Each structure stands twice: as structure tokens, then as C-alpha cells.
């Protein structure tokens, strides 16, 4: 068994193969030189120096998992069942693709001093001294990473401006009504948020906007999204989707025999939501590997159709989301979005299909189970934040 990518999904695949009884050789090949580590702390504790690192607590040696680190995989030749790596060819019987995602860069900014991304441990290490210098920092993109980085930079005492081309934060993920109260979080934290702000170019010491505004910047952090790290699969016969995602099936198999894909690099068809999902969140990189291992080893096919889940810690708030909603789904508010704790639910017909909880972890926990069970809800009871979610089901 060979796994490409030593992030959460790759490591969990190796662990799941052993947990599910596989006794043969397992190798995990990763491009980064570091012991495999977890990414969420990079924009939180690691960035602020509250944690040294975020290495996974996995004893690879006692699991009998061979790690080949600092080794980039360059290509796949399925006819020969071989990978090409920097260290030469590697044969496989079964292959798991877990190469994750890489941040989208701004054209023309490569090599401009003071321009940063935040995806890897090395990125976080480079940013730590930037925070310590308490520079004026400009963050490009008011998405999840932009908000978390801005939070950390404010905590470190930096002056922070976030520029966002859309009219609101998280425009790609949440509707305007839900993102609107989040706009105030930036101001409350002392962060200047500039929406409708398109970056024209970045030069040493400044970000220049399309309207000519020149924002002084001791450092710039670009957080404008990530795309699957799959360029190395070009010409391999592994079918890719429009976002460069490996098109996995509902058992996380790719279009090539005995090649599976999991985590940020792969999309899968969800019968639950009636569409193909490309999920770039931690829980997907934890759950998917169990299905992959089950399908590699098991007699009974296991279908992967999770209720997606993620969390974000921004501006002192714990934000959690479960499920997947579309624009046409009915929104039901629980609580006042200008207060510290509130939830918004999405119903399709009368079934709960998604919810976003701010500072209401119990709503999230109960809601996630109700979504999984496909429970019908009483919208009126649901709208009452004093009632627990599990007491708001339709009778
Ligand atoms: C700063 C940050 C904070 C985050 N915070 C949260 C959070 O709070 N909540 C949440 O739900 N999610 C969060 N996420 C998302 C979450 O970390 C990812 O969804 C998760 O890491 C995906 O795991 P993965 O193994 O699929 O991919 P990755 O973690 O990207 O790992 C893939 C690995 O494969 C390696 N690789 C790529 N190409 C090759 C190649 N050709 N050869 C060999 N190796 C290769 C890469 O170097 C990388 O180490 C955060 C992400 C980041 C970057």
C-alpha cells in the first residue's frame, strides 16, 4: 500500500489500514521534510507561539508504517503500477492519493519580499517573526484563513487591514444575511475590513488597490483560497474535475483501478446532498480515510456520504458549521446575530440539512445528529433559541 501525501488524510489512511487489520507493507510519501503535522493550529496556537509545533501523535514505527519525507511524487504510471518520485520509481499494489491542497497565489507576487501564504509549517514559522515585529499587515481575502490570521495578528499587537474583493466576508461560503453580522466582528477586534477592494498589485511595502488606494504594508498575507494539489497527475489517466479535484466515486475510488483519493485533493458524489462535494476541511480528512481503508480491505463496499463539518476560531468566537446548504434552502435563525451566540439553520422541505453555530456548540452537536438522521423539524420551535434543537423536531 502506498499513500501519497503525509498530511491528515494520508496519515489517517495509514492508521486506518492498520486499525482495520492490514498486515502488509504501508509507505507514506510526503513532500514536506517535517514530521507529519496538523494544519488547523498553524493559524492559531502555532502562529502565536503558544504551541511549538502540531506534529501528529502517531508512532509510525510501532505501527509499521514507513515514512518517506521530503520526497515529492512527480508522476503516476498506472500501466506499470509505479510512481515517479524525486528519489526514483516506487511500485505499488494499491495507491491512495492524499496530496491535499495548495494555496492560490496572486499573479505577479512570487518573489515580492514580504508577501506570505499560510498553508504549511514553514509558512507559519516565517510569519511568527512578522507578528513579533508588530508591523502594519494587509491580509488579502476575508475567508476562513484571512479571518483567523487577522485574529492572531491583532492578538500579537499588529495593525491589520483586510481587503476583500466581494461585498462581505466569506462571500463564497455564506449568504449575505449570515455574513453581515460577521462584518462587525472585524471592527470590534480593531481590524479594518475593506470590501469591494480589488488588489491591483502588491509591491514591496504596499498593497495597491484598483481604485488607486495605496495601503502601507510591512507584510502581506494572501488568503484567497486553495486548490487541489493534483498537477502532478496530468497525463496519468486519473480523471480530474474543473477545480483540479480528483473525481472520486462514492467509495472514494478514482477512475484508475486500485487508486483511491481522499481529503482536500478529492471530490465525491453525495447522494445526501444530490451533488458532488469538494470539501477542504479537517473532519473530511479524518473520516474519509476510514472509508478508503474499509473499501481496500473489506468485503462489503462502504459508501462515503458524510455530513461535512468544520470549525473556525475567529475574533474570539467559535464558529462551527455542519452539513451543506444551497441558495434555495429555507433559513431559520435561532437568536440575535448581533449577540455573542446564535445559530442559523437551513431546511430543505422540512428536513434539517445544515447549520452554522456561533458560540453554541450544543446546537452544533445536536444539529449534526439530526442532519445525519434526516429529521423533519418544526420551524417555529427551531426558531426559539431557548428550546434545544432535539426538542424542535416535527412530531
Ligand atoms: C492554516 C490552516 C488552518 C486550518 N484550520 C482549519 C480549521 O480550523 N478547521 C477545519 O475544519 N479545517 C481547517 N483547515 C483545513 C484542514 O487543515 C485541511 O482540510 C486538512 O489539512 C486536509 O488534509 P489533507 O491531508 O487532505 O491535505 P494537506 O493537509 O494539504 O496534506 C497534503 C500533504 O501532501 C503533500 N503533497 C502534496 N503534493 C505532493 C506530492 N506531489 N508528493 C508528495 N507529497 C505531496 C503536501 O506537502 C502536504 O503535506 C486549516 C487549513 C490551514 C492551512
What's the helical proportion of residues?
A: 10-25%
Broad structural category: alpha/beta
Based on CA inertia axes, which overall geometry fits? Answer: globular
The hetero compounds bound to this protein are:
flavin-adenine dinucleotide
Please give the largest β-sheet.
5 strands, parallel
Spans with pLDDT under 50 lasting ≥5 residues? none
Quick recap of the structure?
The chain has 395 residues and is α/β, with parallel strands linked by helices.
Explain what the structure shows.
Helix content is 22%, strand content 28%. The mean pLDDT is 96. The longest helix has 16 residues, at 282-297. It is an alpha/beta fold and 395 residues long. It contains eight helices and 26 strands. The structure holds flavin-adenine dinucleotide (FAD). Flavin-adenine dinucleotide binds next to α1, α6 and β22.
Question: Secondary-structure blueprint of this entry?
Answer:
Layout: E1 2-4, H1 8-19, E2 26-29, H2 60-63, E3 65-68, E4 73-77, E5 82-85, E6 88-91, E7 95-97, E8 101-103, E9 115-116, H3 121-132, E10 136-140, H4 144-155, E11 159-163, H5 176-188, E12 192-194, E13 199-203, E14 206-209, E15 214-216, E16 219-222, E17 226-228, E18 246-247, E19 259-261, E20 266-270, E21 275-278, H6 282-297, E22 309-314, E23 317-323, E24 330-334, E25 342-348, E26 351-358, H7 361-373, H8 379-382
Parallel strand pairs: 1-2, 1-7, 2-3, 7-19, 9-16, 10-11, 10-16, 11-12, 18-20
Antiparallel strand pairs: 4-5, 5-6, 8-17, 13-14, 14-15, 20-21, 22-23, 23-26, 24-25, 25-26
The structure holds flavin-adenine dinucleotide.
Amino acid at each position: 500500500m502506498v499513500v501519497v501525501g503525509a498530511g491528515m488524510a494520508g496519515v489517517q489512511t495509514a492508521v486506518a489500514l492498520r486499525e482495520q487489520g492490514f498486515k502488509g507493507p504501508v509507505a507514506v510519501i510526503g513532500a514536506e521534510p517535517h514530521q507529519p503535522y496538523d494544519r488547523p493550529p498553524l493559524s492559531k496556537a502555532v502562529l502565536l507561539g503558544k504551541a511549538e509545533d502540531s506534529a501528529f501523535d502517531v508512532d509510525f514505527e510501532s505501527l509499521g508504517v514507513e515514512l518517506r519525507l521530503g520526497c515529492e511524487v512527480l508522476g503516476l504510471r498506472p500501466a506499470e503500477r509505479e510512481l515517479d518520485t524525486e528519489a526514483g520509481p516506487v511500485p505499488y499494489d494499491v495507491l491512495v492519493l492524499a496530496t491535499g491542497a495548495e494555496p492560490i497565489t496572486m499573479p505577479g507576487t512570487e518573489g515580492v519580499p514580504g508577501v506570505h501564504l499560510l498553508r504549511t509549517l514553514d509558512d507559519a514559522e516565517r510569519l511568527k517573526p512578522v507578528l513579533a515585529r508588530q508591523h502594519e499587515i494587509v491580509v488579502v481575502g476575508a475567508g476562513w484563513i484571512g479571518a483567523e490570521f487577522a485574529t492572531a495578528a491583532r492578538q500579537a499587537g499588529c495593525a491589520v487591514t483586510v481587503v476583500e474583493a466581494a461585498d462581505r466576508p466569506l462571500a463564497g461560503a455564506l449568504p449575505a444575511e449570515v455574513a453581515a453580522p460577521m462584518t462587525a466582528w472585524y471592527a470590534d477586534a480593531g481590524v479594518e475590513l475593506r470590501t469591494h477592494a480589488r488588489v491591483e498589485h502588491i509591491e514591496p511595502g504596499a498593497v495597491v488597490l484598483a481604485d488607486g488606494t495605496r495601503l502601507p504594508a510591512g507584510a502581506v498575507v494572501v488568503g484567497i483560497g486553495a486548490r487541489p494539489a493534483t498537477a502532478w497527475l496530468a497525463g496519468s489517466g486519473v480523471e480530474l474535475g474543473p477545480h483540479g479535484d480528483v473525481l472520486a466515486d462514492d467509495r472514494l475510488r478514482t477512475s484508475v483501478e486500485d487508486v483511491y483519493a481522499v481529503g482536500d485533493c478529492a471530490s465525491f458524489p453525495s447522494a445526501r446532498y444530490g451533488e458532488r462535494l469538494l470539501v477542504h476541511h479537517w473532519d473530511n480528512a479524518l473520516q474519509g480515510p476510514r472509508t478508503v481503508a474499509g473499501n481496500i480491505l473489506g468485503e462489503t463496499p462502504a459508501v462515503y456520504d458524510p455530513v461535512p463539518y468544520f470549525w473556525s476560531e475567529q475574533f474570539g468566537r467559535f464558529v462551527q458549521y455542519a452539513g451543506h446548504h444551497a441558495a434555495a434552502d429555507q433559513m431559520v435563525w435561532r437568536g440575535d446575530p448581533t449577540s455573542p451566540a446564535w445559530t442559523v439553520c437551513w431546511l430543505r422541505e422540512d428536513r434539517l440539512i445544515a447549520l452554522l453555530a456561533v458560540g453554541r456548540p450544543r446546537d452544533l452537536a445536536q444539529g449534526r445528529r439530526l442532519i445525519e438522521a434526516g429529521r423533519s423539524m418544526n420551524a417555529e420551535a427551531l426558531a426559539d433559541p431557548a428550546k434545544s434543537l432535539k426538542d424542535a423536531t416535527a412530531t
